[in-house]
Design brief:
The protein has 249 residues and is α+β, with helices and mostly antiparallel strands. The protein is built from five helices and twelve strands. α4 packs antiparallel against α5. The protein is globular.
């Protein structure tokens, strides 16, 4: 016997599987909405300032200690650097002489491959005859090439400057500073003005006479300042190229 429905009601067909009774698709809820949302991090202005300060400090360090001023020398307005060769110095109008001021002919001097000869030359100002006006600037050369070459074409390895010697002349400046006849305090002021890589602590000890030598380094160059052991008066400054050769290790 057929099923009977209440009077006035019309039977309806069953909804397909997965569908709402009215035949529409169920509302999809995004999966991420079901997960608990993490609180958003607030922008931290103080953190940003710290990051910027670290970057600025790194840039300053890179400039001062790697890209800062390199050793530069000036004799009567004629400049040269640690990358100069004796030939370039002579082409600028200066001469090469020995420790007594006698002009040296470097034409026959050969330097072996990857070596630093022990011979030390002096920068001179052209004078009369075979002697030059001494400057107190002494230097050694180095040959970093794989073959021997003339000393006049070799790069400078080290420079030692003795300011204030009785027999020196000319106007000499090192990184724009005149060190002649200055006491230790004036030397430290000159070092700061030239931005030499000496620490403030070492400069203070040098000025007070508590040490006879201070050391610094920037890039490939090494810096030294010395005082006399007994009098504690400033004595000389030394600049050295850190490039390694067979005889500079």
């Amino acid at each position: 016997m057929a099923d009977e429905f209440p009077q006035g009601q019309v039977p309806t067909e069953a909804a397909p599987a997965g569908m709402m009774p009215d035949g529409t698709a169920p509302q999809q809820i995004p999966q991420n909405a079901l997960q608990q949302q993490k609180p958003k991090k607030k922008f931290n202005f103080f953190t940003l300032l710290c990051v910027l300060a670290i970057i600025a400090a790194g840039c300053y360090f890179g400039y001062e200690y790697l890209l800062g001023p390199k050793p530069e020398f000036e004799v009567d307005g004629k400049k040269f650097t640690m990358k100069s060769t004796p030939k370039e110095i002579m082409d600028a109008g200066l001469v090469i002489c020995d420790k007594n001021g006698k002009i040296v002919d470097l034409a026959g001097n050969s330097v072996l491959s990857k070596t630093v000869p022990t011979t030390e030359y002096q920068i001179g100002i052209p004078g009369s005859g075979n002697y030059a006006t001494e400057t107190g600037i002494y230097f050694k050369v180095m040959n970093t090439a794989s073959n021997a070459k003339g000393a006049k074409d070799c790069q400078i390895y080290s420079v030692t400057y003795w300011p204030g010697s009785d027999k020196t002349g000319g106007k000499v400046k090192v990184n724009g500073q005149d060190l002649t006849n200055l006491d230790a305090k004036k030397w430290t002021e000159a070092f700061k003005a030239a931005k030499y890589p000496f620490s403030d602590k070492d400069l203070g000890r040098f000025e007070d006479g508590d040490t006879t030598i201070i050391l610094g380094e920037r890039g490939q160059y090494k810096y030294e300042a010395h005082t006399e052991t007994s009098s504690k008066k400033p004595s000389y400054v030394l600049f050295k190229n850190g490039i390694k050769t067979e005889t500079s290790k």
